[in-house]
Amino acid sequence: MHKHSRVFAGVLGAALVAGSISPAFAADYNDGSVIGNQADWNAWVEEWKTVATDYTKVALTPGADETQLNFAWYSKDESGKQATPVVHFGTDKNALTAYTGKASAVDTSLTGGVAYHTNQVTVTGLKENTTYYYTVEKNGVQTAPVVYKTGSFSNVKMLYVGDPQVGASKGQTQGSDALVADAGAANTAARNDSFGWNRTLEIATAQNPDLNFIISAGDQVNKTGKAKEEEYAGYLDPDALASLPVATTIGNHDSLNADYDYHFNNPNETDNGQTEAGGDYYYSYGPGLFIVLNTNNYNAAEHAQTIEEATKAYPDAAWRIVTIHQDIYGSGYDHSDTDGMILRTQLTPIFDQYDIDVVLQGHDHTYSRTKLLYGDGQEHDSYSMPLNEEGTDYDWDHAKNIKTGELYTLWPEDGDAAGQASKQAFVDGNQCYTIEDTTGNTVVNPEGTLYMTANSASGSKFYELIATQQDYIAVRSQNWLPSYSVINLSEDAFSIDTYQITESGKTEKIDETFTIRKDDTQPQTPVQTNMTRADVVTALYETAGKPSVDAVAHFSDVASDASYATSVAWAAQQGIVIGNGDGTFKPNASITREELAVLFYQYAQKTGKEVSADASKLSACADSAAVSTWAKDGAAYALTAGVLTAKDGAFQPTGTVTADNLAAALAAL
After folding, report:
1. Residue 146 host element (H or E)
2. What is the CA 302 to chain-centroid distance, rounded?
3. How far is the C-alpha of 132 from the C-alpha of 146, rounded, in Å?
4. What angle do CA 122, 127, 132 make, to 5 degrees?
5. What does the pLDDT look like over 13-36, one tens digit per residue?
6. Which has the closest alpha carbon to 187: 219, 155, 234?
7. pTM here?
8. Residues 6 or more apart from 372 whose CB is under 8 A from it?
9. Separation of alpha carbons 151 and 209, rounded Å
């Protein structure tokens, strides 16, 4: 897969990308050496030599609720001195209260053989809109006091970011050199990306000085399964993070060794979703319950246990917000129709069951906002992602069917018909959602869940958008610029604004404000159910007057006593349906728009109705090329006859069909 590089006004460096069947490399990145003030960059190059070898920066994390604050930091083992996990905290910097936590040894294979301890402490009793001071002890020596301010606990403001992935720009060109991910100060990719990460935080916090905390959707750093302390040093270095907690998510690049768990003191940690880096956790803040799932572990039942535990612990939360790394509903080329959606069929019904309002995602290095989505109520296959043979990384080329063990090819080569069919089977198996019928950018009491995908906040790596925008996506963007979102949360409203940062450092909105309101005086949005293949065939059979049927169709997955058996037999005898080529009909699968178009086209032909198919109506659709070859005549007919109508200038061939859609199609027949 070759990608086209872009260079905008010297902001972005170009990559030379070789063809591969694995996920594509980034075509663009943010080049710190040409952005903003050159003097700042030059100073950073010198400062990096010290930053890269200082592993002892403090990481703040939200506590179990808004009255608590968690701390974690490394202290270097020194002869004759013990680790002292103590935070001094209070409103009077001359009379701080000592809070003692725990210390444990860090695996020296991650720190170049040098011994460190991780210190983790929880401070309690915080009040809203209050100025505090803190110091931490490193082997008994207190650091200088740092100011920490709480905001409102009822109107909460958060920064939501995706994939800082410090070190991900490796291989990119910077001046006459290629960025590398060597250890320590020699990691010039981490040097570049730390600069971009700090720049974003400086701009975002200047724009929003009243933030309560940050949510990071994962991949804080880049190296997978390797020592990467200089990347964590760069990630934790920004001054803004000394006064602003971050609720981090375990990304695939964070997942396979323990350094993440050493650096972050997460609240309410569970035994669920465990990888080497840690597992699921949750916390309450103001009107929100926030649940963070380690979806690098593909055991969805464990994630359900975490959500159940969290909702029982905080049953009165007005909002339930989940953060995951993999974007089960995203729109980027590299992940959204491959590994990103592996857990979609399993997590969607779980999110429905526990009334999750919003899911914050990363992974795809693009921006997208979905429509409101919920499950289709049908049974679907479940998938996982295997590790490679060495166990050092994920097998990016395959998804695995949990029940059958079948491996699906995620990145088939051109001309590989079997691989293409395998990929399509995986994509078809993930059509498990219903799109809620809403209008505008403010919705009230919706049934569905909003899924956000954040682009890279540091600009360390960007990906292309997938060629055809999925029907579940409302808005998407890739302008090759770092971005972030600002979330405002109150008892009755969730709103989100998203900004990109230009070369000059200005912020620009890339999406309109989107708001969800909860109002007990207003009715809940009615639920629409996705129609199945059996539903549509049954409706056509009834429209035809329920003619007599001589025999039962021999599809292996249509039981003779099924309520739809006669309808399917009739449709098969008439040549309206022919099955899937493997002896199955898949009666309970959600029918797509192009499948419905073909069924109605075949029905019209077989029952002697006038059939007119104006191909120009289909070619006028922006996504006409995405319509399957076997469905083009049917799609043209459906548009001509008014059985289906284009949505926002697109046919949306893989979109689902609701009961209202089917009723309208039958009326037009």
Report:
1. strand 146-149
2. 19
3. 8
4. 70
5. 332 222 233 444 445 899 999 987
6. 234
7. 0.80
8. 435, 436, 438, 443, 446, 447, 448, 449, 450, 525
9. 10
